[in-house]
Amino acid sequence: MLAFRYGFLFDDGMQRDFEPLIDEKTMGLVPSERPEFPAWTALDFNRCPNCPLDGSRHAYCPTAVALIDIVDLSKDRFS
After folding, report:
1. Any idea what the Cα angle at residue 69 is, between residues 68 and 74, rounded to 5°?
2. What are phi and psi of 55, to 5 degrees?
3. pTM to 2 decimal places
4. Residue 74 contacts by C-beta under 8 Å, 6 or more apart in sequence?
5. pLDDT (tens digit, 9 = 90+) per residue, 16-36?
């Protein structure tokens, strides 16, 4: 696994770190393990019109799952 650390320092002085792991063979983002996923990661929630995934085999959108940690990091912030 390849590991990176991104540090975010916000205007109010709060600092948060984001540490994604990358699979060395596929170069894909390794999602964090968690007991449950947010509702917005469900494959059928705002599904892309060109999504090729079979809903019976994929309960969650892999891209949305990969974004959970970064969304959680900034969910209380204005862009």
Report:
1. 100
2. -60, -25
3. 0.74
4. 8, 16
5. 888 889 999 999 888 888 899
